[in-house]
Write a structure and sequence with these properties.
2 copies of one chain form a homodimer.
Chain A (H helix, E strand, L loop, with lengths): L7 E12 L2 E9 L8 E7 L6 H13 L7 E6 L11 E10 L12 E8 L10 H18 L3 H4 L3 E3 H12 L5 H10 L3 E9 L5 E7 L1 H9 L10
Amino acid sequence: MELKQEIKVAVDAIVFGYSNNKLNVLLIKQKYGTFKNQWALVGGFVKDKEALIDAVNRELLEETGIKVNYLEQLYTFGDNINRDPRFHVISVAYFALVNSTKLILKADSDAEDAKWFPINQIPDLAFDHKEILAIALKRLQSKLTYQPVGFDLLPKTFLFSDLENLYCTILETEIDRRNFRKKILSFGIVEETDQFGNNLKGRPAKLFRFNKQKYNKLSKDGIFFEINFA
Amino acid sequence: MELKQEIKVAVDAIVFGYSNNKLNVLLIKQKYGTFKNQWALVGGFVKDKEALIDAVNRELLEETGIKVNYLEQLYTFGDNINRDPRFHVISVAYFALVNSTKLILKADSDAEDAKWFPINQIPDLAFDHKEILAIALKRLQSKLTYQPVGFDLLPKTFLFSDLENLYCTILETEIDRRNFRKKILSFGIVEETDQFGNNLKGRPAKLFRFNKQKYNKLSKDGIFFEINFA
């Protein structure tokens, strides 16, 4: 059977990182194409015999030199048939959360440059990538309130104030620190370690860690994590 | 620029209906292709200048004669490159919830037949459609607990026992009817009308209706609908 279809399939990755109390997004400078030298999300065309998830991982490695632990499918963009001026391209977008403090970026074959941008200083982006990024940010904000995804953005051990700042920063809201601490600790999934770090005022404070095994167990038992600021 | 890519793009729709206290899925019998005469989800290839959402709506109309109010993107399937024996086809899957009691099905151009199947009597399905259906059912079950989507499956006015049965049936669980009623009514989004219907025992009972405007308003104010049976 022959089937004529001119639609092309691409993947894009929205990688959120967090460092110095700022939410960042990983962008690359395009080396080729209509949008040459413009910043864009990491991504590219899927190869013929390639699984979608393999294509995202390959593009991440080729364009930025990084590997991520977990990619979640965000949405497939294909209702605007002119989103790419060359052909009708549908893009399957994935998002990832990483602790960016220790990742080393390296623009490779396909990209001119790869860099973290603070979420409030995003340059013009190629294609409809600004719109895709906005949808990804919304998803991140919403997930923060019902899944413990914030811990993916933090180092293994962190100050409680880091966790508070992360919620304040990403949700763009003030929080009642005492209630927040009480609520988070009530789930029993954040544990105090016996190590110390330095808080913003330079004073030593206890480091905490997220107990993922415990969270998975509670989840299975039907106990749900939830942080509402309403 | 020329780009060689042999991947094809399809859309599939998982349409859930509800009638006589049963959850049903809309399936069609394939008219052509490798899986000729097998049952499958509604769906097909996207046309070159066609938005994804237009493709799903077209396939629904062509294969079953129905129009739905709202389609939600479920997931894009494209990690198993052999899910279609002919070529590498990625499928963007959508799901819809309809009150099926009054819909008239009419298999058209592309389908041999179109029929509702109770969720516990699904025949063998073409491609990986059984897997896609399982994922859609999970999404429906999960959405039922945090969004008032159950009302999309019911007629405009319904008995409270219909709503209870819907939750029991879809979540495959027993519920404490008194608590459930109290909880649902506490949100203020389900209103008693002054009309009566007949319950299963043939006795007249008050009809209720869902106030969507009120729900949207509460939602904006940050008040969340939630039904947990844990």
